[in-house]
Fold this sequence. Notes:
Elements: H1 4-17, E1 20-23, E2 26-28, H2 30-41, H3 63-73, E3 81-84, H4 91-107, H5 110-124, E4 126-134, E5 137-142, E6 148-149, E7 160-167, H6 168-173, H7 179-186, E8 191-193, E9 199-204, E10 206-217, H8 219-222, E11 231-242, E12 255-264, E13 270-274, H9 287-290, H10 292-312, E14 317-318, E15 348-349, H11 357-375, H12 392-432, E16 439-442, H13 445-473, H14 480-499, E17 504-507, H15 517-520, H16 524-527, E18 529-532, H17 539-555, H18 563-576
Antiparallel strand pairs: 1-2, 3-18, 4-5, 4-13, 6-7, 7-10, 8-9, 10-11, 11-12, 14-15, 16-17
Amino acid sequence: xxxxxxxxxxxxxxxxxxxxxxxxxxxxxxxxxxxxxxxxxxxxxxxxxxxxxxxxxxxxxxxxxxxxxxxxxxxxxxxxxxxxxxxxxxxxxxxxxxxxxxxxxxxxxxxxxxxxxxxxxxxxxxxxxxxxxxxxxxxxxxxxxxxxxxxxxxxxxxxxxxxxxxxxxxxxxxxxxxxxxxxxxxxxxxxxxxxxxxxxxxxxxxxxxxxxxxxxxxxxxxxxxxxxxxxxxxxxxxxxxxxxxxxxxxxxxxxxxxxxxxxxxxxxxxxxxxxxxxxxxxxxxxxxxxxxxxxxxxxxxxxxxxxxxxxxxxxxxxxxxxxxxxxxxxxxxxxxxxxxxxxxxxxxxxxxxxxxxxxxxxxxxxxxxxxxxxxxxxxxxxxxxxxxxxxxxxxxxxxxxxxxxxxxxxxxxxxxxxxxxxxxxxxxxxxxxxxxxxxxxxxxxxxxxxxxxxxxxxxxxxxxxxxxxxxxxxxxxxxxxxxxxxxxxxxxxxxxxxxxxxxxxxxxxxxxxxxxxxxxxxxxxxxxxxxxxxxxxxxxxxxxxxxxxxxxxxxxxxxxxxxxxxxxxxxxxxxxxxxxxxxxxxxxxxxxxxxxxxxxxxxxxxxxxxxxxxxxxxxxxxxxxx
Length: 626
């Protein structure tokens, strides 16, 4: 029966030495590609830094600039992410979910993840995301390609192996590891190595550990042969040390195997992401690999030019007079010295002028232009000024065409991020806010206007109704005109109290004490729209919608006071998606004069005593989601 350790060794050997036949004429080894990408990013030759004569070879780097342009052109910021409702009943829930998402992004430094993810995608074309809940927070990691082993063709159906180099302290401090096994592993000694076995440095005290994830045979957990055909999501942390007598059939006796952890997992917590997905390949092509041949020819041209310039820079003399044999014109002849030579045997300069530099420069420029076409960038995108006489409209048209490719890449990133929100982030936010506790949030002016506009009206109506009921119990009937006056007065008082909070607002999931935030967010992972960088928004259509809204509200603001019209209007806005109904301004109460409230016997005062509600002595003048 195969063990998890044998599975790790098989996958590692196949990853380092195996070749994938993508098609009849295309073979690929991801391990070699990754190492070549890293070499080019660091301006290193894969054939050595010196030529056959021991001369240093130049490296004319064109891949770093291309990768940086891809990185900038496909960048996504935290501010580009918003959540809004797809149904009217979810408007308020989506608004508060959006606030919770902003707070979470700040807490986990989500911007750093976005930058790391974008840079990895630009350089390698693909990136693996890991979602881990740690210390009550959801953390997203971008796995480093040089320490990850996957199947080159089918990422989803095969194990993923993270290669870790841990110190003794890290091994002993991890409470999930079997500490007896840890002590056995530490006693075997350790040193940092690359996957191909080469030593990274001379520093000792590091131990290679393999963290294996995947849908694996249950027998790896139970040790029972009957479970070999039953599969379960699992995680194993293992290590092994060779005894120096490995055989082709990988017998257990050839290695000392260590199992630090084994256990089941609820589900897969990895996502493979691409800028442009390649069918039948786990890893696609980034800016660097697209330019492998171009980078090679640029280096070849630069080396040829350097050799010619080195040769032409030398002072070489020739003569048939043997008296000058072995002499050096720079070391043995001084300025002004008169030389004597045999008849008809003068000293003459060898014609070592560089005569093919221009040709090699032309070749280099051809490959450079070709490299720009391959990765979809232009000279203008690199910051170079356009050639003299080039119209700006022509340059702008070229830039627009270049950016169309990156818009497609950016849209792909946005779709992966939307999947991540639905599968991992929104469910985590629901779990994190599974409480009835009041939360505080600092909002920008737009959010404050949106929430206050809705809250003030609802709160004023509720408190006015409570007062009207109290009046009715005392025998006084309130007219419609008096009710409107009470609502306007109370709305002004609440608005004034809210202004004292500056841009801080306090929220509870409901006035019903037993309702939690999780219940308020129920079902939003399926119905809420996660829009990344306006990917789902057509700019021209959005502008048309905003213009229509502006015209409608400006010409007839009273129409929105009609419940039927207001409901239909909200449905139209939600379907358009470019503006939320919460963002539509309502009629300003303070702009219209109000008659004085008539004094009635037995009527309760609407003036609040401090921040409390009308007569109840409690501090409740905070927005409450109802």
